[in-house]
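User: Last request for today: this protein with adenosine monophosphate, please.
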Amino acid sequence: MKQKYIFIGPPGSGKGTQTKMLSKDINLPHIDTGSLLRESIASGSEEGIIANSFMEKGQLVPISLVSKVIKKRLLKDDAKNGFILDGYPRSLEQAFALDIILEEIDNDKNTEPIVFYFDVAQEKLIERLVNRRSCSECGAIYNIKSMDIKDETTCPSCGGRLIRRDDDTEEVAIKRFETYFKETAPLIDLYEKRGQLVKLDASLDIDTIYKNLTGAIKENVNI
Ligand code: AMP
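Assistant: Here's the final one, the structure of the complex with adenosine monophosphate:
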């Protein structure tokens, strides 16, 4: 049986950190539309220029572009046994587009994705976002306030350069929340009605969230 997971939650809810841990443990690709779009910006492609004009305002990139990027990624060989989608779908329109994409390309149409919702109060999140740094080498994510990091520019794990994302400023973070509540939050209802939703308390510490996540997965499938 193919393992398909979708992670939904507001910006800064810790989806990325948990997906990285799970992806490594169960050897499934971590498919994160935000990173795929940032890669296309870095490559200087036409698609990247269009994506950047929406991302810098905290808005969703048009669905035609995102569908193209995600379909191409899901067709790669490493996704044939399953995948973890982080930050996609992000609107009802994208959820229905994903249904169609999976209908077209999926080699296991009988298994529905399990959708994990990272539930956390908004107050904590803006602070988490503006203090977030990620390593440009190994991709590790840090919070410079809550972690004991002596040098805020160097990754304590691999020595790579720590960077702050362009859209992790307070101004853009507020816009991203508005977009989340308007566009993404309705997905919670959709997947709940379909019986696919598992709610996780994302205000807990990283290891406890991961224990709850993997516990829920074990209840559903034998990993
Ligand atoms: P993230 O890295 O998930 O926080 O995403 C950063 C930005 O990329 C978002 O604020 C959006 O502008 C864009 N983005 C990421 N995923 C999507 C998506 N599924 N649909 C549209 N825009 C997206």
